[in-house]
Task: inverse folding
């Protein structure tokens, strides 16, 4: 059994320690926010946070994640009570198909927690590892900048 | 083979008449001895590990019955409590001394050399008397001796003794320290370490020219104590002393098998006796200090490499999916034993690659590997680096943890 702390809740997981976190999130825990894209850490759809840093959940075995604080899309807020990052994406209408968005949000969350006043250039650089096939890049960048404002208390 | 030779010996013994000696008259052994003598005898009994063969599991101390499996059959430790009928209560010191040093029982019959009188023969009169005092002050236990399962006539043992047994005290080596000589006396005599640690010939006699070259006991191999010692880290006096006292010493395994009883006995022995034993035992390894140092370093190196196992778990989860596949398969990457970053004198390149991945410049194409920054802790990255280095077959990197620490502090 592997103990994982996900969104502030410690859960025991009965899975091979070499299993990537993504599979455990989706298959064992029903947390379907993180998406399977490439399985190779190339597309960013699976990104979650561990101890405040963005990681590819498709590449990271649960064996290395014990005692770490994992945060997923579900930890950013709910449909009823969206957090600032989610509110910003809704306000900017940044999602088209939406498949890449959870990964983008978690990467952006890590960035803003590290640098609350990240510039547009920094946002673009941070999101570089994320692919969006719909082409909503401009809206995504605006949404992240907006999320920064919301977190800083501007509405 | 051994059997046939033994049968021949048996036949010869009858012909030659290598028979028993005269018996020593029974007496009522004294019941009381000076306290110091008994205390000394107790320590000697621990060094000689008398308990191991003369006390059955769950049985009364020294009442015998312990099976000792030998290549010639199972022999049972005898009752050496001072019970007059079933033990050795009727043995005067003279008989006890003769058993210890000449391998004859009170009635003058040859004793099987499973009783290591080939070692005990080196004992001084004083020590034999102390042992006698200790044994004769134990609780007498009525327990008949078990019949031995060794199909060899006692007389044949007489022939064996004439060939392989040299009675006599140990001559000190004046070139060596008093401590070393005391150790030699205890190890070669009462301790009978060679009984297990020296190989035996087909007739069960220790090969004197291969003393301490490693032997067999009850299915266990007793490792060599001489220069061929297989101990990964060569023994030192200090390590040996700690091991014999506690059954454990730094950089050495814990005692196991028949050695557990030996250590149990030695744990009761005085520091100076143990020190002497350790000084002598460590001196059996005659390799130069330099050779021993190299052996030690190499062993520690291998041990460091084995930490790799921790890194293997990280590899298994984080890397294996692509890197075990090889490039022939889709999504596969180079098998890492082929990686150059593993072979260079520093772990830095590999650490950078794992942390930051290999990413093409923005908008460009190029080689690619995902970054693991954030996914692995410093400790996990360290374990992984050590593991990967081991795959290269080269000596481990020095201070991988330190390099990783610098890296995560941004000092590199």
Result:
């Amino acid at each position: 059994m592997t103990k994982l702390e996900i969104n502030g809740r410690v859960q025991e997981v009965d899975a091979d320690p070499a299993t990537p976190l993504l599979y455990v999130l989706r298959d064992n825990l029903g947390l379907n926010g993180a998406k399977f894209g490439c399985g190779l850490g190339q597309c960013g759809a699976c990104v979650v946070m561990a101890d405040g840093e963005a990681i590819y959940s498709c590449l990271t075995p649960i064996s290395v994640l014990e005692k770490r604080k994992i945060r997923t899309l579900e930890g950013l807020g709910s449909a009823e009570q969206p957090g600032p990052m989610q509110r910003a994406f809704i306000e900017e209408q940044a999602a088209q198909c939406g498949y890449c968005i959870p990964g983008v949000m978690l990467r952006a969350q890590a960035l803003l927690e590290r640098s609350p006043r990240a510039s547009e250039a920094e946002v673009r650089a941070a999101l570089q590892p994320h692919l969006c096939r719909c082409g909503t890049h401009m809206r995504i960048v605006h949404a992240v900048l907006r999320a920064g404002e919301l977190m800083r208390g501007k509405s | 083979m051994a059997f046939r030779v033994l049968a021949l010996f048996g036949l010869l013994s009858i012909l030659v008449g290598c028979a028993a000696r005269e018996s020593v008259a029974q007496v009522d052994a004294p019941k009381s001895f000076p306290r110091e003598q008994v205390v000394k005898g107790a320590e000697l009994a621990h060094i000689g590990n008398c308990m191991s063969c003369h006390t059955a599991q769950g049985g009364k101390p020294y009442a015998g019955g312990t099976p000792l499996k030998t290549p010639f059959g199972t022999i049972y430790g005898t009752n050496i409590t001072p019970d007059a009928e079933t033990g050795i209560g009727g043995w005067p010191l003279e008989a006890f001394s003769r058993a210890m040093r000449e391998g004859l029982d009170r009635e003058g019959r040859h004793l099987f050399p499973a009783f290591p009188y080939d070692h005990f023969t080196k004992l001084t009169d004083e020590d034999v008397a102390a042992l006698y005092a200790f044994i004769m002050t134990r609780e007498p236990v009525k327990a008949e001796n078990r019949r031995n399962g060794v199909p060899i006539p006692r007389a044949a043992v007489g022939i064996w003794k004439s060939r392989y047994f040299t009675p006599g005290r140990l001559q000190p080596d004046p070139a060596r320290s008093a401590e070393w000589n005391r150790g030699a006396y205890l190890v070669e005599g009462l301790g009978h370490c060679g009984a297990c640690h020296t190989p035996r010939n087909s007739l069960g006699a220790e090969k004197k020219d291969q003393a301490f070259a490693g032997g067999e006991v009850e299915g266990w191999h007793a490792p060599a104590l001489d220069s061929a010692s297989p101990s990964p880290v060569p023994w030192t006096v200090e390590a040996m002393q700690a091991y014999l006292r506690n059954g454990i010493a730094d950089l050495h395994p814990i005692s196991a098998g028949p050695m557990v009883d030996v250590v149990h006995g030695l744990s009761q022995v005085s520091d100076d006796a143990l020190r002497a034993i350790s000084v002598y035992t460590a001196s059996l390894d005659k390799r130069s200090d330099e050779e021993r140092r190299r052996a030690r370093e190499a062993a520690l190196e291998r041990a460091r490499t084995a930490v790799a196992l921790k890194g293997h778990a990280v590899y298994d989860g984080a890397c294996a999916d692509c890197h075990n596949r090889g490039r022939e398969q889709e999504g596969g990457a180079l098998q890492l034993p082929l990686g150059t970053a593993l072979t260079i004198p520093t772990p830095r390149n590999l650490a950078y690659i794992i942390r930051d991945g290999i990413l093409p410049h923005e908008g460009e194409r190029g080689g690619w590997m995902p970054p693991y920054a954030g996914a692995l802790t410093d400790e996990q990255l360290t374990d992984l680096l050590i593991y990967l280095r081991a795959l290269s077959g080269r000596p481990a990197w020095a201070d991988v943890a330190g390099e990783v620490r610098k890296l995560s502090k941004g000092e590199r």
Chain A touches chain B through 24 residues (CB under 8 Å). The first strand of chain A starts at residue 2 and ends at 6. The mean pLDDT of chain A is 96.
